[in-house]
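Dear U.,

For the methods section draft, I wanted the exact inputs and outputs in one place so we can describe them consistently. I've listed the two proteins in the order they'll appear in the manuscript figures. Please don't edit the token lines directly; just add comments below if something needs changing.

First protein:
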Amino acid sequence: MNLTSDATQGLTVRHLFKSYESAGLAVSILRDLEFTLSPGLAACITGPSGSGKSTLLYLISALDRPDAGSITLLGTDMVTSPPARLTRFRNERIGFVFQDHHLLPQLTVMENVLLPLLAGTGITPEKQQLATELLERVGLKHRLTHKPAQLSGGERQRVAVCRALINRPALVLADEPTGNLDPQTATIIGSLLLELSREQQTMLLCVTHSVELASRFPCHWQLEDGRLVSAQSFASSVSSGTTP
């Protein structure tokens, strides 16, 4: 699964293995998984529940550790680098859209979006303007001073997307970004993520169950038996009765 050749500019995952213990037995989730991604490219991963899609995103962002294998993002080793360095790197260079919004209830919409800046460059007038523009693009400009409890589930998820983009990250990881949204808002969010990936030459890696969302990505992989295969190859193998 190669979409780039320069590890110092993109994302490279090699020979990735991950398992969990269940009832005293090791259950393999990812098996010798490999792929690469370059700036400006967007890829979507689909697969059945429990196949390891979310696990893969957590490993790439160094929120979890693999059993074996390497992950390199912009030349940084995401497996062996010191935790303090990874924490700072993740905040500055990775935007993560979780399945749940994880907004802080005591902060306003604007404050939640600007929150990642406090651990990095700080809040500037330019970043405040960017936050306003992002919130306007997702239809929330009229909600800047509202708290999460005053928002619908879909609105909270839209705020979380804006928060993930505020640092203009090199890589955006999106875990079911439209799972809690109505169809119209889901289309808006999908468009925003893809547009900003092209505009800012950001790498975008999304995992989803949404067939509609996956169909909009230029690259679509299927996670099957712990490895990535192209969705087209997977569909062909299923129709012919073979295993990818």
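Second protein (the one for the lower panel):
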Amino acid sequence: MSEEHLQKQLTTIATDYGQVGAFIHIHPLFVGDDNQEILFSPQEKAIVKQVFLMAKHLKKSLNEAANHGRSCFCTVVRLDGAFGLEQKVNFGAIGAGLFGLTKTLVWEWSRVFCRAIDLNPKLDAEQSAHLIIAELHDNNRYLTEVAYGSYGRVTLTSVLGKS
């Protein structure tokens, strides 16, 4: 899982199939025991690092693809379907960092469609696939992060409070 190996694989893909125009990372499910407070898995850390490296090496390709149609960078995690706020699942905390990466790319890659999705771990593969595809076709580029769980499709909003 070295950066050099990743670059070699991307070069092979570009040679055999053309430049990458879409990237979707579906993060594995990392769930801790109910007795653990927060799960910090070394395997999860390595995977998230690879996604950051993918973003680094796909920048040129995805931005170029945006000149010819819709290109996308999408990350999918399975926290709890509520951005980790329901506190009913002891999920791996490191994967939540993919939301930060995706939100940063929205600003840096203005022509690339970027979306971070949190799916409830109880959703089956078919439901999950339909939801991911629906998000990839969403016209609202102002949304960067969405979640699907017990409340349906939710997003985060800020509310001004009284001081």
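Candidate sentences for the figure legend, describing the second protein: Residues 62 and 84 are 29 Å apart (CA to CA). The first strand starts at residue 22 and ends at 26.

Thanks,
Y.
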